[in-house]
Amino acid sequence: MALALVAAAIGGWALFRSTEEAEEPIVVGTTSTPTMVDPAGAYDASAMALMSNLYQSLLTFEHGREQPVPDAAESCGFTDNELTVYRCTLRDDLTFSNGRAITPEDVKFSYERIQAMAERAEQEAADDSIPEDEKFSYAGPSALLANLVAVRVDGRDIIFELEHSDATFPFVVAASPGAIVDRENYEMLELRDDWQVDGSGPFLLEAWNEGESAELVPNPNYRGANEPPEFPVTVRYFYGDEEQSAEEQLAAAWENGELDVNDGKMPPQVMSAVNRSDPQRPVTENTAGSIRVMAFNTDEGMPMASQVARQTVAALLDRDSIASQVQQGTVEPLYSLIPVGYTGHGTPFFDQYRERDPEVLRQRMVNAGLPVPLPFGIAYSRGAANHEEAAEIERQLEEDGLFEVEVAHYEWDEFIPGVYSARDYDAYLIGWRPDFPDPATFTDGILGPGDGMGTGFSDERIDQLIAEAQAVSNRALAADTFLAIHELAAEDAPIIPIWQEKRFTISRDEITGVQHLVSGSGVWRLWELRRI
């Protein structure tokens, strides 16, 4: 009987593949390149976007409302009024792509694995007996699980115990830390770097072509909240080289007719010239939640450990010039870490930094005992017009002699382990995409104890306000608390907002579903794409 069942399964898969092979893949181009496809180690938006197609979480985000709804779970909910115990019941018809049935123990393992790796990295960082180049480097999503105390299994149920009230925990479950992996094929304390995936999402990763593309095919065994995909998808990644930037490569591929969907960043001058009225190349525009920031290393002894130094940078930064001149109007200036479209958005970095007189700012630095000019370095990696943007920021900060700036560019695969994870920087420029569609994603993980941007900054007042906001089940009622958090964040300025992205997606007119592709949840809904 077992042999017959296996044969039947293989036969069904073969039939499915022969049908799908007749379908031409939809080719999607992007400049957003992933670092890996292991949910325990990937915290970059590019990896999270790809993984949202390959793995399932207990919950996912309902398109349109962007609220958590059951996916791998039959149901989920808090079981106490204090919002500290969250319980989910796992569906009983789920299998990994390798054919093994998904169990509650796999879910438990997936969460504990993230926490264990973060703990390992912390322990090795403090262990002087381990050579620096041999220490475990970790840049995963553990900051989102900072409030998780324990995970228990009770039959088909998974029970999450939280340290304190947290109305946003369902959003965390629906986001990348909730991705369920096969505990028999993923190690507890080692990241999987073979670009193989044992997941249960809408797509299977049929092939990863290093530096080129990811080939996705529909998962015939997907069971969940989303509509199963009808077409295979090939994601073409553009990395850039010595001759062309990634943005220039993407633009050339689009002009050459190599793509069905262009969902990346082209050079600002190219994007600003796109005909938005062309019916054969429709443009979908979204008010994206992605923001661009400058983050500082605030550790004692570092150049930007001084609050006054960071405040001076915040005052000198001319966001309007960067948005209009460098980014050519394809972004909006941003004066809060919470962007437009989210509860709690305000303009504290405008309100608090009206004083821009260089002589006044110079005197403040002198009074704080700072050398003038103050030397410090800014690291940066990918992004549309990233070289021009870094050069413009350097010019603005050096113009009046208050700072002496050295900018350094890194390739993305060097930036994450060598700069971001190792915290080997004075300051760095980076994009931040929301982990989930709630203002807490711009607060808890990057300003709170999770320290998701590795600034080393902490503030008890902010931590207390974060806890207060987490306890509010009606998120609209937390607006004033979020405003208060970001008033304090602007005052200390460990992270400075620069601009908010406008998300443009261009497609051929025979492709449908593009309007559902991206949203504030960070989910990349490739399964929505259809060819007509």
UniProtKB/TrEMBL annotation:
<keyword id="KW-0732">Signal</keyword>
<keyword id="KW-0813">Transport</keyword>
<dbReference type="InterPro" id="IPR030678">
    <property type="entry name" value="Peptide/Ni-bd"/>
</dbReference>
<dbReference type="GO" id="GO:0030313">
    <property type="term" value="C:cell envelope"/>
</dbReference>
<dbReference type="GO" id="GO:0042597">
    <property type="term" value="C:periplasmic space"/>
</dbReference>
<dbReference type="GO" id="GO:1904680">
    <property type="term" value="F:peptide transmembrane transporter activity"/>
</dbReference>
<comment type="similarity">
    <text>Belongs to the bacterial solute-binding protein 5 family.</text>
</comment>
<dbReference type="Pfam" id="PF00496">
    <property type="entry name" value="SBP_bac_5"/>
</dbReference>
<dbReference type="InterPro" id="IPR039424">
    <property type="entry name" value="SBP_5"/>
</dbReference>
<feature type="domain" description="Solute-binding protein family 5">
    <location>
        <begin position="67"/>
        <end position="451"/>
    </location>
</feature>
<protein>
    <submittedName>
        <fullName>Peptide-binding protein</fullName>
    </submittedName>
</protein>
<dbReference type="GO" id="GO:0043190">
    <property type="term" value="C:ATP-binding cassette (ABC) transporter complex"/>
</dbReference>
<dbReference type="InterPro" id="IPR000914">
    <property type="entry name" value="SBP_5_dom"/>
</dbReference>
<dbReference type="GO" id="GO:0015833">
    <property type="term" value="P:peptide transport"/>
</dbReference>
